[in-house]
Amino acid sequence: MRGLYFFLFILTQVSSSTLKVIGFFGHNVTLPCRYDSLTHGVLSVCWGRGMVPRSQCSSTILSSQDGAGHFSQSPRYQLLGRVTDGDVSLTILDAQWSDAGVYGCRIEIPGWFNDKKINTYLVIEEAPVEQPVTQEWTPTADILKTFLTNKVEVGEIIGITTAEEEMKAYLEVGNIGRVAAIFFFLIIIILVFVFRRRFLPKRTIQHLDTSPAENIYEVL
């Protein structure tokens, strides 16, 4: 006899399972419960508050008989899945704090000790606060918006950009070298001019000093 009780206990444990689901206050929450409808067809199911007992459901809140029709204690309890495909998950609309607790799903499979039992522990938490999405500031976008607000043509904007690029190109290393060469050439011209101004008066004075002597010699 003890062996028979042990065998029945094993069968009961194999066909049941326990889940934990977290839902948010004020949102819909779904408690899963499924079976293989291709093998068994459409079956009867019931949902209740509390652990699934040895038969039926405790404090039944929803039941369905072979998918033909179902009873619901409240319009907030719904079967939104495809019942004909074996999806008999319970959806609780607008979850409240009082909805927290244990729920049991029993699927009536023909045969001895074949019923599938799923116990689900529902936890209700405060819904997370959604952070506002801020748009990143980009200087280019603001400048373009300012130009368009002032009715500046796109061609003018492109012209301004081209002028800036030409100025940058002019200040490159190659152009700086040309400017330095021109500056050096100007310095050489200035130095030549200065030296010429300093030595030219002396040669003129020497020429004037020798001219009278030559004239006196010629007279004598």
Uncertain segments: 1-14, 210-220
Shape: rod-shaped
Number of helices: 5
| Share of helical residues | 40-55%
In the sheet with the most strands, the strands line up as 1-9-8-3-4-5
* Average pLDDT score: 76
SSE pattern, N- to C-terminal: HEEHEEEEEEEHHH
Structure description:
- The chain has 220 residues and is α+β, with helices and mostly antiparallel strands.
- It has 5 helices and 9 strands.
- It has helices at residues 2-14, 37-40, 139-149, 154-170, 173-219; strands at residues 16-24, 29-31, 44-49, 60-65, 69-72, 77-78, 90-92, 101-108, 116-125.
- The strands form 2 sheets. A 6-stranded mixed β-sheet has the order 1-9-8-3-4-5. Strands 2-7-6 form a 3-stranded antiparallel β-sheet, with no helix packed on it.
- 12% of the residues are buried.
- The model is unreliable at 1-14 and 210-220 (pLDDT under 50).
Write the layout of secondary structure elements.
Blueprint: H1 2-14, E1 16-24, E2 29-31, H2 37-40, E3 44-49, E4 60-65, E5 69-72, E6 77-78, E7 90-92, E8 101-108, E9 116-125, H3 139-149, H4 154-170, H5 173-219
Parallel strand pairs: 1-9
Antiparallel strand pairs: 2-7, 3-4, 3-8, 4-5, 6-7, 8-9
Summarize the structure.
By secondary structure, this protein is an alpha+beta fold. It has five helices and nine strands.
List the main descriptive attributes of the protein structure presented here:
disordered C terminus, 220 residues, alpha+beta, six-stranded mixed β-sheet
